[in-house]
Predict the structure of Lipid/polyisoprenoid-binding YceI-like domain-containing protein.
Amino acid sequence: MSYFSFSRTTSLYQKRLAALLLLTGSIVSSHAAIYLLEPNNSNVLFAIDHFKTSTNTGGFYHLTGQLEYDKRAQTGNVSLIIPMNTLRTGNKAFDINLASADFFDIIQFPLASFVSTQWHFSNDKGRSGVTKVDGLLTLHGKTNPVTLTATKFNCYLSPIVKKTVCGGDFTTTIDRRKWDIRKYTLLGITEKVTLNIQIEAVRQ
């Protein structure tokens, strides 16, 4: 089976998504609006130093999940499902290498996920809004806490879908060894990986 095939992961995908959405709904305020992620505008991009000469980049696309957000009450929650078979770097051979058991091992671990545990807001004049999101990142069968820094986050009335849309950009740097992805760390490829997460969600 090609590692880009989605057929074997459909039921697992649905079960994991349902579980995450149930968890999300049990945490946030009952007054928070519910938004569903728009897969075409939600992705995770990564960058990693390559032997201190250049930076390798790639991404995972078509994220799904749920956002709950109440600006006035300053509450939020988000759950993301990341289909690992959407891996793209622009180099097919490199994609196959990263998908292998040496790195992401996407046959054994076809999904990654992020579930927030706490949202942070700023009330400083001129900088109100989301500043950070704490949560749990599950990747390669391991779960560890991470903190995402919000570089922007906003909601607006979309003239296209005629609904409120919320979205933003978040960034963090992780140590891949914590998720047991260690290949070549002793040979010069750094353990530090920068993640840039873009989400866009439509109010239901």
In short: The first strand starts at residue 33 and ends at 37. Confidence is low (pLDDT under 50) at residues 1-10. The beta strands are 33-37, 43-50, 54-61, 64-70, 75-83, 111-122, 129-139, 142-157, 164-175, 192-203. The two ends are 36 Å apart (CA to CA).
